[in-house]
Design brief:
Layout lengths: L2 E10 L2 H4 L3 H8 L4 E9 L4 E10 H13 L3 E4 L8
Antiparallel strand pairs: 1-3, 1-4, 2-3
Helix pairs in contact: 2-3
């Protein structure tokens, strides 16, 4: 199976989501998907994280869907590449 890395922004948009262990729940269902938090800003009211997920492509997509089903906003981090 193909292995991929996916860079995403995770947004926990309210106090309830900030206090929910969404990443822990995801890891219990998808222990074969690793993640690396590259940047985070979390307050009592909102949390935003830049995270890199790695694993088999289908499993990474399923793990991200698991987070979305918990009402975490999942958005890809776009790279700007200037070609000259």
């Amino acid at each position: 199976m193909a292995v991929s890395k996916k860079r995403v922004w995770l947004t926990f948009g309210n106090r309830g989501l900030v206090e929910t262990p969404a990443l822990w729940r995801m890891t219990t269902k998808f222990p074969d998907v690793s993640f690396d938090i590259r940047q985070a800003s979390v307050t009592a009211e909102i949390g935003i994280m830049a995270v890199v997920f790695e694993g088999e492509t289908e499993r990474v997509e399923a793990a991200l869907q698991c987070l979305a089903e918990q009402n975490v906003t999942v958005e890809p981090i776009e790279k700007n590449i200037l070609e000259g």
